[in-house]
Design goal:
Length: 137
């Protein structure tokens, strides 16, 4: 990747209501405009999981206004890195893209206590991703 290209990352999970929303929010929060961030789901929910919104607010990241989005072929094609989080083979695969699969528990139907360790693991992985694709200076 050249210095003039902003890497684009797409986070995908089935409902786009938990894991992918947290990951996208952390990446935006940590990398700012050094990375283009998208998230989507193969079967998006109507709203973001309230326990996920609460868990993110605890670490100063507001995702209350986020809305789950449907996964499109165009979103995958426009991304350099595609990170799946339990959506399996519903994600279209294109040559030349980097694919990562982060095995993470699904926070759906769980309270904020159960979401916190998932949130913390996602933050750790996103920090590593930032260091890899968009290091400072």
């Amino acid at each position: 990747m050249s210095d003039t290209t902003t890497p684009a990352v797409l986070f995908v999970c089935v409902h786009n209501a938990g894991r992918s929303q947290m990951a996208a929010a952390f990446l935006t929060h940590l990398a700012g405009d050094r990375v283009q961030v998208r998230s989507a789901g193969s079967a998006p929910a109507d709203t973001v999981n309230p326990a996920v919104v609460e868990a993110m607010a605890e670490v100063g990241v507001d995702i209350a206004a986020e809305v789950p989005k449907v996964l499109t072929v165009e979103a995958v094609q426009a991304s350099d890195v595609v990170i799946t989080m339990g959506c399996g083979d519903t994600c279209p695969v294109f040559p030349g893209k980097r694919y990562l699969d982060w095995e993470l528990p699904d926070p759906a139907g769980r309270g904020v206590e159960a979401v916190r360790p998932i949130r913390d693991e996602i933050e750790k992985r996103v920090r590593g991703l930032v260091d890899d694709i968009a290091p400072v200076g």
